[in-house]
Each structure stands twice: as structure tokens, then as C-alpha cells.
Design brief:
Layout lengths: L3 E2 L7 E4 L6 E2 L8 E2 L5 E4 L11 H14 L6 H11 L1 H16 L4 H17 L4 H15 L8 H18 L4 H13 L3 H12 L5 H16 L7 H16 L3 H14 L1 H5 L3 H13 L4
Antiparallel strand pairs: 1-2, 2-5, 3-4
Helix pairs in contact: 1-2, 2-3, 2-4, 3-4, 4-5, 5-6, 5-7, 6-7, 7-8, 8-9, 10-11, 11-13
């Protein structure tokens, strides 16, 4: 008889609690893997309250759940079970990340990449490459209009992971550069300058050197945005929310005020800004 518990609001998964001593077979010439007594996600279509889930259902459920909820409780345990008992599923993660790294992906693809990186990080929490890549993904999401509602959280998450990476390799210039970019967006200009000055000690690409020196010069001269760019991006998020609620005039007023202010489009030129402004004007009959 299987033990069922309810541990998630999603209709896609049920949770099964393995009995003490339950094991998974790993293969010939390998000892079986003892399962920890923790809730195990099983996809709803594979779940029955009357029977113990098959080993395939356990592996498929763990894989699907981690890809959906990479920050869930017991994520490290789930990732370790996958790696030890289902190496073919774990190999799929690395293979998919290779594909996502070399192709342009949409918003859903970016979120998928973030989830896969986090799964690997659960097993190697001090891996510089994983920490850096996760920080970069969060930075990129903060500038994506498709994820505009989460801009502030994305920037804070970017800084958390990039700082964790810095503790592993303090002088890695690409990581320091991204930390500077994040701080600049958050309006922490002095901290951005310090990161960029540190990065410049090890950067050989002259185009990057010129760009960073230009940004440092802006900070030194006080030629920085009057308010943090993240605040402008949050205004865009507010406009999007109003637009979705049918309050087109209010949304248009916010976007037009940002156009007049020009800080956002000067610092972060983005075609999506003008596209959305056009949508707002169209709804207000300003063809």
C-alpha cells in the first residue's frame, strides 16, 4: 500500500512517502539505492493511491518536478536521487543545456535554462560556472519585457548568485563586470564603479575596457540617471499591468512620461519600449 500526502497546490503532481528501507535498483553490479523518507513527487497521470509507484514513475516525477520547481523543499535530495538512480535523465539536463547555450531562446526557454542550471547547482553548490551562469540569466531576465513584473527580484537574485560566484573566484572579470551592471541598474553607482575597477585589472578586450571606462567616467561626473533604472523598469511593469486591465490611458501616460524623461531609453535602448508605447497609443486612438 502506498502512502499519499498532499504537499503541493499543483494538479500535475501527487506526493508519495516511501516506507523506511525502500530502495531503487541502480543496475547490475551496483548496490540498490536507499530512498530517504521524504515526500516524492509523482506525476498525476502515473499516480495511484492503491499501489506503490513504479521506478520509472518515480524518476519521471522527480525530473518533471525539479524542472518546474527547482527551488522546492528537498530539491538537493531529489537531484541526488536522479543522479544516482536515473543517470540517463540527469544526462538529459546537460544535453539540453548545451542546446540552450548555443541558440536564441524565448522567455520560456530562458526559464527552462534557469531551472536546469539550478538542478545541477544543488549537487555542486560552489561551482563557479553554474553560479555565474545563473546570475547572468537573472540579469538578462531583469531586462526582458516578458518578465518585467519580476524585474526587482530578478536583479536581487542576479546579485546573490554573482556574489556567491565572486566568493569562489574573486577576480574573475566577467563576473565582476556583471556585478557592476546589476548595481548600476539598482542605482548603487559607487559599488558598480568598484566592481568595474576590479574587473578592468584583468580585461584584455579593449572594446570592453573603453565601455567600462566610459561608465566609470559617468559615475565620477555624476552623469547618472536621476533615479535608479530599476524604478523606471518597475514603471513599465505598472504600465503593462494597467494595459492588461484595460486601463489604456493610464498605461499610455506612464509610457509617455518615460519617453519624455528619456533616462530609460537612453541607458537601455530597447525596441520593446517603443512597441509597447505604440500599442498604448493605438488603444487610445492615437494612430
Amino acid at each position: 500500500m502506498t502512502t499519499s500526502i498532499h504537499a503541493d497546490s499543483s494538479d500535475s503532481f501527487e506526493f508519495w512517502l516511501p516506507e523506511e528501507g525502500y530502495t531503487l535498483s541502480i543496475g547490475p553490479d551496483q548496490p540498490d539505492l536507499s530512498m530517504p523518507v521524504i515526500p516524492v513527487p509523482i506525476q498525476s497521470q502515473d499516480y495511484s493511491s492503491q499501489t506503490t509507484p513504479s521506478e520509472k514513475a518515480i524518476g519521471d516525477g522527480l525530473y518533471a518536478y525539479l524542472c518546474t520547481y527547482p527551488d522546492c523543499d528537498h530539491a538537493s535530495d531529489y537531484a541526488l536521487i536522479l543522479k544516482q538512480a536515473y543517470p540517463f535523465l540527469f544526462s538529459d539536463i546537460a544535453a539540453e543545456l548545451l542546446v540552450l547555450d548555443v541558440k536564441d531562446v524565448d522567455h520560456a526557454g530562458t526559464l527552462r535554462k534557469l531551472a536546469l542550471l539550478k538542478i545541477l547547482l544543488h549537487l555542486e553548490p560552489e561551482n563557479f560556472g553554474l553560479l555565474f551562469k545563473i546570475g547572468v540569466v537573472y540579469h538578462d531576465l531583469s531586462l526582458s519585457y516578458a518578465d518585467i513584473y519580476h524585474v526587482e527580484n530578478n536583479l536581487h537574485q542576479a546579485r546573490i548568485f554573482l556574489e556567491r560566484a565572486r566568493k569562489v573566484h574573486p577576480q574573475e572579470p566577467a563576473n565582476l563586470n556583471y556585478l557592476g551592471q546589476v548595481c548600476y541598474l539598482l542605482g548603487k553607482y559607487h559599488q558598480a564603479k568598484l566592481y568595474w575597477l576590479s574587473a578592468l585589472k584583468n580585461i584584455t578586450d579593449q572594446s570592453v575596457v573603453v565601455r567600462l571606462n566610459k561608465l566609470i567616467g559617468k559615475i565620477d561626473s555624476g552623469d547618472t540617471p536621476g533615479k535608479p533604472l530599476v524604478d523606471n523598469l518597475k514603471q513599465v511593469a505598472e504600465a503593462v499591468s494597467l494595459y492588461d486591465a484595460g486601463q489604456y490611458r493610464d498605461a499610455c501616460n506612464i509610457m509617455e512620461s518615460l519617453e519624455v524623461d528619456s533616462s530609460l531609453i537612453d541607458e537601455l535602448p530597447h525596441s520593446e519600449f517603443y512597441y509597447f508605447l505604440g500599442l498604448c497609443r493605438e488603444k487610445c486612438q492615437n494612430v
